[in-house]
Every structure is written in C-alpha cells, then in structure tokens.
Q: What sequence folds into this?
C-alpha cells in the first residue's frame, strides 16, 4: 500500500506505547476516550462471529469510523490526515484489544487498521470454501434440542444457519429464481428445525407440516414457543385430548395458535337427550309442521 513505509515507524512506536500502558491513546478530542470491548476475543475458531460483532460495535459508535476498515488513508499532504491518523489509531487499538493476546502479538506490524483488517480476512476467512460449508451443514444436522431450552436451542441453530447463508449465499440472478431458491432454503431450514426438536412437540410439528404454504422456521419457532409457554402454565407436556391445535398463517408469514371449535354431538347432556327445536319447520309436501319434505313420512315411508 502506498505511503505504508512512511507510516510504519510512527505508528509502530505509538502502538508499542499503547500496548505497554494497556490503554487507548488519548488524543485531544475527548470523544475518543471510550474503550470498545465485545464479549469475545478473536481466536482461530470464532472469526465469523467475531468479525460480525466487531463491525457492529465499531459501526454503532456515534462517529463514522467503520470506513477505517474498508478505505485507504488520505494523502499525508491533506489537512485532514492528522485527524484521520488519530482516528485510525483508535480503530486499530479497538481491534487489538479484542484479539487473543497470543495472536495480537504478531499483528503489531500492520501500519493501518485496514491493513490489519485485511490480514485477518486472509488469515481466518475461508470465503466460500466448500469443506467449511460441508462441515457447517454437518454441524447443523447434528444439532438436537436435548436438554437445552427452546430458546438456547434456537439461538444455536440460528448461529449455524446464519453462517451457512453468509459463506454460501443465494447464487441466483433472475428474480423468479431468487424467489424459488429462497423458498426451498426456507423449507430446508424449517425441516431442520422441526427435526431437531424434542419428542414432546410432535403433535404441533405435524400441524405445522400440514400448512400450505409452509411457514418459515422463524414463524414456526414463534408458534412453538407460545405453545411451550402454554404447556408450562398448564403443567402439561402434551395437548389436552380432544383439542386440535391449528396453525393460522398471517399475511406477513407469521403464525399464531388457533383452537378449532368443537362440533357438539347430539347426545345426552345431564342425563337427558338434547332435542332440536322443530317448531319452525314446515313440510312443502303435506303442509304439516315440525318436519321438512325430506323427512315427510308420506314420501319416505312410515316406520314399522
């Protein structure tokens, strides 16, 4: 990168002092006094999650510093260069602070945040490596709920699914093909989710699979989570016998539980027969009341 040799001695010295003191450099502008810490540090196993979290963290700051990961520095002759250099040191320090110390020690040679970021991409991102894609699919298929809560299981499955989508995105170009591919992928994700659920959700899984069109995995999860909450409240792990749980798809693809009404049978109630009110019926054939033409004995015959 042009200008890199001129930047390196000065930046290396400042970086060395920063690491020695264990704090961020503190330029005159007080807006840079904040540290930036995320919940995990980069290691050889978590690059995909780490890079997403660190981008969100930097992009969430109230200053436009995310460009330091993607854009080259301005010319040193420009008046804005000094301010840019201060900002770049801050972004560089944020990256270093969120990398495991065993790795960070070998990364101090990079003169700018972008060069460090690009080096991490080359080192840890395998792009669309098919072996990694295969391993992720195997991992996703091996996920089972088991002793995990529904929420914990869903988060785990979402993490793997999201990583698969990131490294193996929709390859279609035609709008119709994009839509078809997305539908197929959505169905596969739904099947994977339902298959990994515990046995106690079998009845509601069958109801979901009867829907046409099939809902998304997200909508199915929302419905099952609601049903699980109902089960916890009622202290049961199965649907009450006689109640049919129906799943109603909304226009937005969401889902909700609906209870299909009972169809009352004509039988005994409180020891007596339930009789229909026939006072308003009148036969079109004989003109008599309390029956219809279809029930008229003169046409259908008298009982023996």
A:
């Amino acid at each position: 990168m042009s200008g890199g040799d001129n930047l390196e001695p000065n930046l290396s010295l400042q970086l060395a002092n920063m690491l020695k003191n264990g704090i961020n450099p503190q330029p005159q502008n007080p807006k840079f006094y904040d540290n930036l810490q995320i919940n995990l540090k980069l290691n050889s196993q978590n690059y995909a999650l780490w890079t997403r979290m660190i981008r969100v963290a930097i992009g969430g700051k109230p200053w436009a510093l995310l460009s330091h990961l993607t854009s080259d520095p301005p010319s040193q002759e420009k008046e804005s260069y000094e301010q840019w250099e201060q900002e770049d040191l801050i972004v560089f320090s944020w990256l270093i602070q969120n990398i495991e110390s065993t790795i960070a020690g070998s990364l101090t040679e990079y003169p700018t945040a972008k060069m460090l970021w690009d080096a991490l991409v080359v080192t840890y991102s395998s792009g669309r490596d098919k072996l990694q894609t295969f391993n992720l699919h195997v991992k996703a298929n091996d996920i089972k709920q088991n002793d995990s809560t529904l929420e914990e299981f869903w988060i785990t499955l979402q993490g793997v699914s999201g990583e698969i989508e990131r490294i193996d995105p929709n390859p279609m170009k035609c709008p119709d093909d994009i839509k078809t591919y997305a539908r197929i992928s959505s169905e596969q994700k739904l099947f994977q989710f339902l298959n990994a659920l515990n046995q106690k959700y079998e009845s509601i899984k069958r109801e979901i699979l009867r829907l046409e069109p099939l809902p998304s995995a997200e909508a199915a999860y929302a419905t099952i989570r609601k049903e699980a909450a109902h089960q916890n409240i009622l202290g049961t792990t199965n649907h009450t016998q006689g109640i049919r749980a129906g799943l109603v798809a909304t226009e937005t693809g969401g889902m909700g539980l609906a209870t299909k009404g009972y169809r009352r049978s004509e039988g005994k109630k409180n020891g007596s027969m339930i009789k229909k009110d026939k006072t308003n019926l009148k036969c079109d054939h004989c003109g008599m009341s309390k029956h219809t033409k279809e029930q008229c004995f003169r046409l259908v015959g008298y009982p023996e």
Q: What stands out?
A: Confidence is low (pLDDT under 50) at residues 1-9, 20-33, 237-274. Residues 189 and 217 are 6 Å apart (CA to CA). The beta strands are 245-249, 255-259, 268-269, 272-273.
